Amino acid sequence: MAPTRDRDPQSPPLSRYRKKRDFGVTPEPAPLAASQSVEPGHPAFVVQKHWASRLHYDFRLELDGVLLSWAVPKGPCYDPKEKRMAIHVEDHPVEYSSFEGTIPPRHYGAGDVIVWDRGTWEPVGDAREGMAAGKLVFRLHGEKLAGLWELVRISKPGDKQDQWMLFKKRDAWAQPLAQYDVIKALPDSVTVKPLGLVEEREPRGARPARSATPQVDLGAAVTAPLPAKLEPQLATLAASLPTSGDWITEAKLDGYRMLSRVAKGQVRLITRGGQDWTAKFPELATEVRALALDNAWLDGEITVLKNGIPSFAALQDAIDGAARQDIVYFLFDLMYFNGKDLRKVPLWARRALLAQLLENAGEHIRFSQDFEAPATQLFEAASGLGLEGLMLKRRDATYESGRTQTWLKAKSRLRQELVICGFTARGGKDGEIGSLLLGYYVDGKLRDAGSVGTGWDARTARDLWTRLTPLEADAAPFDVDVARPRRWSRRSAGSERWVRPELVAEVEFADWTADGVVRHASFRGLRIDKPPGGVIREGGKTQPPDPQPKLKITHPERVVDPSTGITKADLVRYYASIAERILPHLKARPLAMVRAPDGIAEPLFFQKHAERTAMPGLTAHDRALWPKHPPLLTVDTVEALLSAAQMNVVEFHTWNSTVRRLDKPDRVIFDLDPGEGVKWGRVQEAALLVQALLSELGLQAWLKTSGGKGLHVVVPLAPRLGYEAVKAFSQAFVRHLAKTIPERFSATAGASNRIGKVYVDYLRNGMGQTTAAAFSARARAGMGVSMPVSWEQLNDLKSGAQWTAQTAREYLSFQQRDPWADYWAAAQSLASAIKRLE
């Protein structure tokens, strides 16, 4: 059974897709007359998570202007032993690859859709032949999926469905399902929470080169006269390597920025600051002139290679001496070419054209190569080789003068330009520099950056002396007072000599101190190409992205909940996937943990303090925090959370205060617990009545399910009153409810007192009392989860355990808005409410 476009070779493309949808109602995209590839030259793939009548995953591969599509009920899996059913469905338009939204009820595919993964794919062999034969092997480059995969048709001619199997091929990316379940580990939309390519986050060998060579697309080029001037695009220092987007990665060259302007065959070499250096490098100008250029602007960097590595010191020696023949001009961008302004053309296309122009370039003109290996792997290699770092540029970026976020520089060492503000003499004698006094600008004001006293030889020390003494001034040029005592103690009084801030030094150093000066600095050279006014403090070294926490689960197969079959591995993975959501509710709050070492059907026990069983990562606080009690525990990190889950913790219950202000609660909680015979609708009504009374008292409240039978109404407070006052308010509030509506509410504990009523528990507001935290699982059959919800959702809730440890994370992956987003800023006072209740 060979597949065809829409199954019928006589039907127009995407006809089945069109017939199934009413584009006046559904937000799904209608096919355009001419669909365009997401990334020219590199076909896209997308996996959309679709919660329709049931949850499934739509797997799509771009081919011949459409998205070949399969519905995969269980989703993809990295375990080659797991063969996942994939139903071949109608082709979708390329525009569908970015679709997220809600398909209305009673329409085809009604339900919520998110983009679960996206990227590019490479067929192994001919994709069209593979589809016809029913065996398609391909490589994925996604944010969650990578490596070799295979789709195999298993249906026979005449079958109602075109059934295939999707499975992972054995390679470096294959992993047993028991070790890693990508569906549970990474459930969210990659548009809401971009991850970047998994091959860069977790490199496992070099990323394979792109198999297709893209045709140069200059469609965005504009016919325009050659610009007389052009300011270069500048990169922003990256605090960490990017984890999202498609980036071109080059080595960061240790040299001087140099632009070339070619006008009717005449070449000018221009520095970043706009100086004409053509006369300095006539050989380079001659080689640029020999390129096939009538009119052009090019961008690059000049440097000198020493043992194959760019050397800034060697470049300075070459510029100042007779070794100019060692200077190499690396070109990395082309902004204008023979009557066309290319600045709006995507970077990959500009570079592709530039590479073609440089194929027969002279000895000293080179193309700045980019690398297909993962950025983390390249960064490690660059650091090991002693390179300054990497340049990362968005593949689709336009060329913009000035500093931008589409060009990033990743530094493997702390290094930057600093303004020379003064100097001292070596040994106190004139003739050679002993140290340089440095500065940088903050909001236009020059401030002290410390000093550097190493990194030059005697010849350089004399040269610096010759350059600086004509610039001497009577006073320090700093606009911000110099903090001298600690850093200047080794100098004799008056040994510093100040200069006008006109020269710039390149300095490498170990770190910035807390007051903003360099530590253990070493001089690398003068930056005669950069003006001092633009020297500002940059950040620290670029850090590679943090690896995801590794889960080491003992007895992962142990069943925690016999009623559902939830295992210990399932529970630990749930907490791993929910960590960023639950931690704000746990951090710095003393807690009690419900542990189930033999499962929730066996005896449970509470743990509030540090005991014999160690849980690495949990914080045990000083006994002085709560005298006469054992040390309190808090869960403040992912490590602590997973450590507790690994030690069979099922529930996390927290105090109403933090360790910072232990005696001052920052919330009051009303636990709505239905008595015998109370239907769920009565619990919903009770919550609305509680909210209404709180609103009358001027208090805003937030709602969450308890994970059990009831609901929690939470009122955030400014931590001003003590526990006694807050508990007294909650007791008065509940008694008022029970007195006003006695047929609905009970303020008295005990099963016999709440038959047919909702008991509102105020006792949880006392010192040392706890309540199940938001997102905590519960040690009850089904393992419900305490889920934050909006008041608008209340009527749609089916129970207090609507979401479980099996379903909660999937539900959250489709939520675009946090219903508790404003909770954290709503610190309210109880003073007025207390008076109104009296």
TrEMBL record:
NCBIfam families, per the entry: LigD_PE_dom (TIGR02777), ligD_pol (TIGR02778), NHEJ_ligase_lig (TIGR02779), NHEJ_ligase_prk (TIGR02776), PRK05972.1 (NF004628)
Keywords: ATP-binding, DNA damage, DNA recombination, DNA repair, DNA-binding, DNA-directed DNA polymerase, Exonuclease, Hydrolase, Ligase, Manganese, Metal-binding, Multifunctional enzyme, Nuclease, Nucleotide-binding, Nucleotidyltransferase, Transferase
Organism: Paraburkholderia acidiphila
Source organism, top-level taxon: Bacteria
PANTHER family: BIFUNCTIONAL NON-HOMOLOGOUS END JOINING PROTEIN LIGD (PTHR42705)
EC main group: ligase
UniProt KW Hydrolase keyword: yes
An annotated Gene Ontology molecular function: DNA ligase (ATP) activity
Domain named ATP-dependent DNA ligase family profile: residues: 329-442
Residue ranges of the region described as Disordered: 1-37, 532-553
E.C. no: 6.5.1.1
Gene (name only): ligD
Catalyzed reactions per annotation: ATP + (deoxyribonucleotide)n-3'-hydroxyl + 5'-phospho-(deoxyribonucleotide)m = (deoxyribonucleotide)n+m + AMP + diphosphate
Ribosomal protein keyword on record: no
The protein's required cofactors: Mn(2+)
Listed name of the protein: DNA ligase (ATP)
GO terms (BP aspect): DNA recombination; DNA repair
